[in-house]
Design brief:
Blueprint lengths: L6 H23 L7 H8 L3 H13 L3 E4 L4 E4 L1 H13 L2 H16 L2 E8 L2 E8 L14 E3 L4 H7 L4 H11 L12 H14 L2 E4 L6 E9 L5 E10 L8 H18 L5 H7 L1
Antiparallel strand pairs: 1-2, 3-4, 3-8, 4-5, 6-7, 7-8
Helix pairs in contact: 1-3, 2-3, 5-9
Length: about 270
């Protein structure tokens, strides 16, 4: 009678095979045109026979497919189905809220989450500051793109054609003395925002209120939402804006990653 394999050894082998199979999926996913068996083996440091065994198992479950014309292994339909299951269950607010709480604790100011809807921005969630004097934006409230931090964060990634379309349809209503009402000035401001990776609302939407915001991206490296830090100008000084802007940018990056999104830089690296 053959000796029984110990449970520990069996589990270890299963985990190793699973880890290797996932590594195969990951390396193929990073190379959209597909990879040869030799290329996969070299990239992962596996024997060709091991790679082939893993690939055929994944092929049976439709996670990979083999293109005979190019002799390349490619991602299969089941991998898409699995990924799509994550996307369909993704909840922006519930994923973002823990990060928003950390943002509030780190900055001491109110944190907002908003999405673009047409030519406006809609607030989705807020984590209020613990300070006595704080900003409140009711979820569901709409604000213009051109004079809000979250709006400008999304607008800064638009091309001139889209910006001109919005301006022609909505104009640039003046809400305060600091609101940008000249399209050329607004475009220069948006260009600067893009360079620094966060947008600033310097009392442009409401007198006495300052805000910084950065973009959250989806899986296509396109703007999905924006997260902002806002508070009274008496507490958010001009000198403090760049620091809070970097905080907003860093947390926006973390939320993007948690949602399975990609930044434009990440998308460019894959191409």
């Amino acid at each position: 009678m053959a000796p029984e394999t110990s449970p520990t050894k069996s589990r270890t082998g299963q985990v190793q095979s699973l880890t290797r199979a996932l590594s195969v999926l990951n390396v193929i996913a990073e190379n959209p045109p597909g990879m040869t068996l030799t290329g996969i083996s070299r990239a992962l440091g596996l024997a060709p026979s091991t790679s082939h065994r893993l690939l055929t198992t994944l092929q049976e479950e439709r996670y990979v497919q083999y293109d005979r014309d190019s002799s390349h292994w490619q991602i299969g339909i089941q991998a898409f189905v699995t990924g799509n299951g994550f996307l369909s269950s993704r909840d922006l607010v519930s994923v973002a809220r823990p990060f928003m709480r950390r943002m509030m604790e780190e900055s001491g100011e109110t944190v907002n989450l908003a999405i673009s809807e047409g030519d406006d921005v809609i607030y989705m969630a807020q984590v209020e500051s613990r300070e006595m004097m704080r900003v409140y934006s009711k979820p569901g409230n709409r604000v213009p793109l051109h004079c809000s931090g979250v709006g400008k964060a999304i607008m800064m990634l638009m091309n001139d054609t889209d910006i001109d379309r919005i301006i022609s349809l909505r104009g640039l209503p003046k809400l305060t003395e600091k609101t940008f009402t000249d399209s050329d000035q607004l475009k220069r401001e948006l260009l600067q925002s893009r360079r620094q990776r966060f947008a600033i609302d310097d009392e442009e939407h409401a007198v006495g209120l300052r805000c910084v915001a950065s973009v959250i991206y989806d899986e296509y490296a396109e703007p999905l939402a924006a997260v902002s830090i806002s508070g009274p100008a008496a507490r958010i000084s001009t000198e403090r804006l760049p620091v809070l802007g970097q905080t907003a940018f860093q947390f926006a990056q973390e939320i993007t990653a948690a949602l399975g999104g990609r930044t434009p830089a990440d998308a460019a690296d894959v191409k």
